[in-house]
Specification:
Blueprint lengths: L7 H7 L13 H12 L11 E6 L2 H6 L14 E6 L6 H18 L3 E6 L6 H6 L9 E6 L6 H10 L8 H4 E3 L1 E5 L2 H4 L3 H8 L10 E6 L2 E6 L9 H6 L4 H19 L3 E5 L13 E9 L1
Parallel strand pairs: 5-7
Antiparallel strand pairs: 1-2, 2-4, 3-4, 5-6, 7-8, 8-10, 9-10
The protein binds flavin mononucleotide.
Length: about 290
């Protein structure tokens, strides 16, 4: 599904949230490649496929973001990737997974991107996508050429230098139970896969993903940030549960890296696991590694 000349791990390390763009439209060849990639997307791991589109932007679009519950200041974005879907089980996870594959593809074309979570349902973005009454747009992504030639390299350097502020391994990845961090040696071939999950973008950089290895299974859990999704402000603004979108993004980084490294596996939902255990993060899904 993901076919570029650059290794996936390199693309993931190059990506960062770009908030200042060259205002010129995206060059036609890159625009066409991005559009073709979007048109050829398969459904996400839960079998759902939101509809996505690449929209050219006007100056007013960037300005209108401020009133839509997003944070940060986006300057001169020449285009936006928008997506919408009728809510269903696991739709936010599939939305996150597929939008992130588009973002990584855009990164491989040397384009800057930034996820923007907010309430877009009544926005000009929704109008342009002809949003249906039962559809929701949980997030959009700004996309365009970098404002300065060195910007991409700088993003890469700050990722590698760790200045992107990620939680340490021992807070994110475990063996058998949450009390036991897994070491990179114990993770074996999957250490590089977990490294790439750690570099995933997440709403407000909360990094809510937790992964517990159990035998041949890598179990994905959501450690909610207290008061975040169901906070008063988000409720008032009708903002989607963005931490579920974050989980889909983590699944995307995990699966794409595993495939790139020749590690096979399938997504399974283990019926035997309680979804909302007491004093534990929420269980979502497991990757069953296969020989
Ligand atoms: C679902 C989601 C929503 C986000 N919303 C915003 C936003 O509204 N404004 C913004 O500037 N960044 C937003 N971000 C970007 C995060 O702040 C960013 O990914 C995180 O701080 C890590 O930095 P990095 O992407 O440069 O690695 C969002 C990211 C995700 C995954």
């Amino acid at each position: 599904m993901f076919n570029t000349n650059l290794p996936t791990t390199e693309i993931i390390q190059q990506r960062f949230s770009c908030r200042v763009y060259n205002p010129e439209p995206i060059p036609a060849d890159k625009r066409q490649q991005l559009q073709a990639f979007i048109a050829g997307l398969s459904p996400g791991p839960f079998g759902l496929k939101p509809r996505f589109d690449l929209l050219a932007a006007t100056q007013e679009d960037s300005q209108s973001l401020r009133g839509l519950g997003t944070y940060g200041f986006i300057k001169n974005a020449p285009a936006f990737i928008v997506g919408a879907m009728t809510p269903a089980d696991f739709w936010l996870e599939d939305f996150g997974y597929l939008m992130e594959t588009i973002i990584l593809y855009a990164t491989s074309l040397a384009l800057g991107t930034c996820w923007l979570g907010g309430t877009f349902t009544k926005s000009r973005f929704a109008q342009k996508l002809h949003l249906a009454a039962d559809e929701v747009m949980p997030a959009i992504t700004s996309v365009g050429e970098f404002a300065a030639p060195g910007q991409m390299r700088q993003g890469q350097i700050s990722q590698i230098a760790g200045s992107h502020h990620r939680l340490p391994w021992e807070v994110l990845f475990f063996k058998d139970q949450l009390q036991t961090p897994i070491s990179p040696e114990e993770a074996g071939d999957y250490a590089a896969v977990l490294d790439m999950v750690r570099l995933a973008p997440s709403a407000s950089n909360k990094q809510p993903w937790r992964i517990i290895k159990h035998r041949d299974l890598w179990r994905f859990y959501l450690q909610r940030t207290p008061g975040y999704a169901k906070g008063v402000l988000n409720k008032l603004l009708d903002i989607s549960d963005l931490q579920r979108v974050d989980m889909g993004i983590a699944m995307c980084h995990f699966e794409l890296t595993a495939h790139a490294l020749g590690l096979n596996g399938v997504w399974v939902i283990e019926d035997s696991i309680e979804k909302y255990p007491e004093e534990m993060p929420e269980y979502l899904v497991s990757w069953r590694s296969q020989p």
